[in-house]
Amino acid sequence: MPEGPELHLASVYVNRVCEGVLFSGAVRKSEVSKSPEVPFSAKAFHITAASRGKEVKLSLTPVGRDGKAVTSQGDKPMDIVFRFGMSGLFKMTAEDEMPKHAHLSFYTKEKPRRVLSFVDTRRFGTWHPHGTWQPDRGPCVMFEYKSFRENVLSRLSDRAFDRPICEVLLNQKYFNGIGNYLRAEILFR
C-alpha cells in the first residue's frame, strides 16, 4: 500500500510530467470505477499536484489563450483528492497506450494526444472532486514536522497512546502517512 513517501513521489511525478503541458476537455472516468464522476471540463487547463500523508491533491486550473489562469464564472478551478488504496499510481502515456486499469483520465490538448491516468489494478483507490484533505488526519510527518511533533506531544495523554506502539503508529490522527512497512522500519531501527 503506498504510504507518505510514495504519494509524495507521485505528486512530484505529476508536477514533472505536467509542467508546461496544456490539458483540454472533460475528465473521463472508466465505466467500472465506483468513484464519482468529475464534473470538470475546460478548453485548456493546467494540472499541479501536492501530497499530504496518504493523500494526493490534483489541482485543475483553467487557463486562457495567454496561458494565465482564468477567473471567469464558467471556468472554476477544481481540486481532486486521491487516496491510492493498495496499488494506485499516476501514469502519463500516449493516448493509444493507455493502461488497461486507467480509471480517471486527463487528456492533453497537443497532437498526438497524451493522457495522464490514475491507474489502479485492484480498484481500492478513490478520488473526491472538490475534495479537501481529510480533517481527521494529523499533520504530515514529512512536511509539517513542527505541527506533527506538537500534535503528538500535546496528546500523549489520549487513550490512543495506551495501546502498543505498533498500533499507535498506524493511527492517522497522529501519524499521517505511516503504514505497515514504515511502522516495521521505525520499530526495527
TrEMBL record:
SMART domains (UniProt xref): Fapy_DNA_glyco
Name this polypeptide is given: Formamidopyrimidine-DNA glycosylase catalytic domain-containing protein
Listed GO biological process terms: base-excision repair
Species annotation: Knipowitschia caucasica (Caucasian dwarf goby)
Cited InterPro entries: FPG_cat (IPR012319), FPG_N (IPR035937), Ribosomal_uS13-like_H2TH (IPR010979)
Domain Formamidopyrimidine-DNA glycosylase catalytic: 2-125
Cellular component, GO annotation: nucleus
GO function term, MF aspect, one: nucleic acid binding
